[in-house]
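note to self — DONT lose this again. spent like an hour looking for the file last time. sequence + predicted structure for the chain T wanted, 321 res
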Amino acid sequence: MAKKRPQTKAGRPQRSDGEIPVVGAREPCPCGSGRRYKACHGRAAAHAVTELVQRPFEGVPGECDWVALRELVPAATVELKLKGGLPEGVPSVTLATVLPMAWPALRRDDGSVLLGLQNDTPSGDISRDLADTLQRALEAAPGTPVQARRAPADGPRMQDLLDAEGAFEPVVHSGFEFWVPDPENAAPDVAASLERANAAAIPTVKLTGVDAAYWCETPDKNHLRWVMPHPEEQLLDALARLHAAGRSSLGEGTRLVGSFRAHGLTVPVWDLPSGVSAEDVEKPAAEFGERLAAALASDAPLTADERRARGGLTNRQVTLS
């Protein structure tokens, strides 16, 4: 028997993967092949979604702060340094936690670029999706927001675009006025989005004495959330040693309550009394960092008390991503 030839629609131009929109699984694929989307380009999209990159920010400057800004910090910005410098007509590239109306990116009227970090991404590799959005923003017309799309599977990642020697220095803001040069005269839809975002923002401060630790204020109590780069098992052992010895707190009335797991890193969390400010916790956090370094260096087997402490910490661990 002769093999059936693939059905195609004559005269319909084929489009590249990057131009093909996402449609329903049983609908005809927009590429023009004549097949259903799930059997054509939807197959690659489904595969990409399942291929989750556990540490998407590994290898970029400030990995721990990338995780914090993605998951924990409401309003912050960071100036990004690109390999080879900025393109002509682009005075700056700024990473922002959130942009108005959840835009993935925005090319401002002056040519500068804002790149949003906390958006949903269509694939399992946040770094590749961000890099695709950034590249399109660099080429967009000034005054244009950039819409979401599925990044090409062979496209660059942020690790390929960023200057590996560039500093990553987040600036935490009390609100989202950084969205627009003149908030008082913002467009109505942007102004409404700004008002909603400011109302929902939790007061947050980045500690200066240790890396990637963020104090935040909630109605009932305050917290310190500290993103750490150490391997999870080693870090949990070290935290258990300190916890069992009664040395895991950050001062009177504070306690280590558990941890988050986010983008391949572990984020210990402390409860703080409502009267404890970010400034109050600076010195205790630095002292804890020294105790933790010593505990991380130990390779002695855990004692029975330390194993119980570790079990308690593990049971209170929550996976964010």
